[in-house]
Specification:
By secondary structure, this protein is mainly β. The chain has strands at 22-30, 35-41, 48-59, 63-70, 77-78, 80-83, 94-100, 108-113, 119-120, 128-130, 135-140, 147-157. The two termini are 18 Å apart. The protein has one domain. It is built from no helices and twelve strands. Helix content is 0%, strand content 48%. Strands 1, 3, 6, 9, 10 and 12 form a six-stranded antiparallel sheet that branches.
């Protein structure tokens, strides 16, 4: 895998954002049988972390939800992943949607989100960094709640961190 810094290896003015090594991925509105979970998995070798720049989460019903990390891929229905720049190869990162039989431990939770109201992370500060072999997930606190969502991330060489 190459370093996705781009042809001239320079950044843009958006807080050291490297579009040549960035991607977006998500899942369409889906209703699970259990706890609906969307996860971004870092499938990179030990050289690249995933820097999560943005995320969006839109529940189909009023419910609580939260974020957490797990040291595995939460396999399920693969989401669509596209490179940030059309025609480029996507960097590391896989998005999956799954129906978990039990709630996973979360480290950052939200009480209630009103039905059909989207929630987004929209600051210049990145939301999370995912090490190889780990996943960042968003999960409903209630079973059988439809949701759509996605992530924007970039692959960051560990020597840059």
């Amino acid at each position: 895998m190459e370093n996705f810094a781009g042809p001239d290896r320079t950044t843009t003015t958006h807080v050291n954002f490297f579009p040549y090594r960035a991607a977006r991925g998500g899942v369409p509105l889906t209703t699970p049988a259990g706890f609906g979970t969307m996860a971004l998995y870092n499938n990179a070798n030990s050289q690249f972390n995933l820097l999560v720049r943005e995320w969006a989460w839109q529940p189909g019903s009023t419910s609580g939800w939260g974020f957490g990390y797990v040291n595995q891929r939460l396999t399920g229905t693969p989401g669509v992943v596209q490179p940030f720049i059309a025609g480029e190869a996507p960097p590391f990162g896989l998005v999956d949607y799954s129906s978990q039989g039990s709630a996973l431990p979360t480290d950052w939770s939200f009480g209630i989100t009103t039905q059909n109201s989207g929630v987004m992370w929209q600051t210049e500060v990145p939301f999370a960094m995912i090490r190889p072999g780990w996943s960042l997930f968003i999960q409903h606190a209630v079973i059988a709640i439809a949701v759509a969502g996605g992530f924007i991330w970039e692959a960051i060489n560990t020597v840059e961190v």
